[in-house]
Design brief:
The protein is an alpha+beta fold and 190 residues long. It is 35% helix and 16% strand. It starts with a helix and ends in a 12-residue tail after the last strand. About 8% of the residues have low confidence.
Length: 190
C-alpha cells in the first residue's frame, strides 16, 4: 500500500513539473511572437533527458575491440560506449554487433580461464560508478556465458575510476584470458 502511495505521489509530482515546464515554454513562445503574426517556423519542444550523441560516431563491431597480448594473457578491450548508454548497464539494441565480433576472438585464445573487468568513469559518485562497472561486467559475462563462450564460473570485477593517462577508452570492458593456465576441460565423469 505504501509503495502504491509513493508511486502516485511521484506520478503527481512528475505531472505537475511537466505542466510547469510546458506552461513556461508556451508562455515564452507566446511572448516572442507578436500579436497578429503567423508562426511559419517549426514548433520547438524542450529537449528531454535522452542522451544525444555528440562528436564522432561510436565504432561498433570489430572496430570497437582492440587486443593486447602479453606473455601470459590476451586482453580484449571493448569500448563500453559500443555496448551501453552512459551510466547504464543494460545492453544497447545494437550491442550484439560488437559482442558477436568479440566471440571468435575469445574462441581463438583457447579454453583458458577468463576474467571480465569493466571500467566506468562519469560525473556520478565513485560508489555509483563502481556499482555501474560491476553490473556491466556481469552483463557481458551473462551474454558470453549464454552463448557458451566463457565458463559459468568466470569472475567479474568493476572499477569506478580509470587510471589517468590510460591509452584505452576510459569506459571499457576487458575480457582477460589467462593463457598460461591450462585450458579448461569439461568434466568427464565416467
Amino acid at each position: 500500500m505504501k509503495r502504491r502511495l509513493r508511486y502516485y505521489r511521484r506520478l503527481a509530482l512528475g505531472l505537475a513539473l511537466t505542466g510547469l515546464c510546458f506552461c513556461s515554454v508556451t508562455s515564452a513562445a507566446a511572448q516572442a511572437q507578436q500579436a497578429g503574426e503567423v508562426q511559419t517556423g517549426p514548433i520547438t519542444e524542450p529537449i528531454g533527458a535522452e542522451h544525444k550523441p555528440s562528436g564522432p560516431p561510436i565504432p561498433k563491431g570489430i572496430q570497437a575491440i582492440t587486443q593486447e597480448d602479453a606473455k601470459c594473457s590476451a586482453r580484449l578491450i571493448v569500448n563500453a560506449n559500443a555496448l551501453f548508454e552512459p551510466g547504464r548497464w543494460t545492453l544497447n539494441s545494437d550491442a550484439g554487433q560488437t559482442l558477436d565480433a568479440l566471440g571468435p576472438m575469445i574462441t581463438r585464445t583457447g579454453k583458458h580461464p577468463v576474467r571480465i573487468v569493466a571500467f566506468t568513469r562519469s560525473d556520478d559518485s565513485d560508489k555509483n560508478n563502481l556499482f555501474v562497472a560491476e553490473k556491466r561486467a556481469r552483463t557481458v559475462r551473462t551474454w558470453l556465458k549464454d552463448r557458451g563462450l566463457v565458463a559459468d564460473d568466470t569472475t567479474t570485477e568493476g572499477f569506478g575510476t580509470v587510471p589517468p593517462g590510460a591509452k584505452q577508452p576510459k569506459e571499457r570492458v576487458e575480457v582477460v584470458v589467462d593463457t598460461c593456465k591450462q585450458p579448461q576441460l569439461p568434466n568427464q565423469n565416467h
